[in-house]
């Protein structure tokens, strides 16, 4: 395989390096697989999931091993595709835009690459965190590969580092699977990379289990799919401002400071994600300074696998099994009322996801023609800490594993909670955010006010003081 032309240098902060990629190739299943057409569920093929979602993993060099990560991962991928063979096919669209996988066995896209940079240089330059400015070089967008239909459903790039470590970047078609399903796929790859010959859990298709009922019965309120409103682009929040991305770390000290804003009983009975999601929703609203009467929304992802009882999903089911419940409040209520107000709204929305909610959601997709979720005044926060344990054998667990940037194709205002260890060795959560430039400055100030016990005025301003908590 011939390498491509020498690329321009990639700069991330003060870190500069080059990535040399070989030509893309297709990796097919290691053994013959069935040729068939497999329908997606009505949760899978909703409009809001028709995009590719990327993630990235950094691994250290193992001085006791001479294994080539590219060779090991390519082989493990081919073996995994024997079990997850629909991923080697292509999506087709049928009547009423119904999606199905044509299991052609063509394969998934794979790129072998080398970068003249060491993992330690990322760490020294504080560049081992999202958003990665170099992300597009570590997961190169091959022309046509990001199409939803008739394109590879999975794309992997493995980039060797000069220290012997490597970067594993993956992008997959979201209609095929969610974070839990992707984790199952990657864990099978890690088992084969570690020398196993039989997977611990076999994948299950069975997408009919989350298809619409007959007759259709929309029994729940699905406010996340409210009718789209006509948005005046001239008055849209931050429309004319440059968008910037930064990451924020929330460790034990930060979470304790947030919990002190809540009544003790609520603080003790709320999860870290409920607390942090509510806090960030409130801080983001203060930073944006919308009209006080504007309806602000926080959408979060709830894994519904444990909610489904009639019938339950079998182990190994790797389709999309989550909902986008939404909490809604006016900007005035959200910013002027205590944090308790936001937390209770979030907990209420989260608890609304039940077995019947998911069945009703599948029916809604059919009755309303797969509506998009309403994005005006909304942000989305998703917990992807499940990616932390992807172990490719001799290289152990990733130093960083998760989303590579804030935002996604269908939802630029999306943020993801990723497990992270800061320079002090403290474990916590890092959250990349994208905001208009001036709003980002105010967002940093709002956070600093909380973590420095400062008061904030209703317009979000603060008295001058050295900021000790900002982006990483």
From TrEMBL:
The keyword Transferase applies. Keywords: Transferase. GO terms for molecular function: transferase activity. InterPro entries: CAT-like_dom_sf (IPR023213), Plant_acyltransferase (IPR050898). It comes from the Eukaryota. Coiled coil: none annotated. The keyword Transferase applies. Pfam families: Transferase. Belongs to the plant acyltransferase family. PANTHER family: ACYL TRANSFERASE 4, OS05G0315700 PROTEIN. This is Uncharacterized protein. It comes from Arabis alpina. The lineage of its organism: Eukaryota, Viridiplantae, Streptophyta, Embryophyta, Tracheophyta.
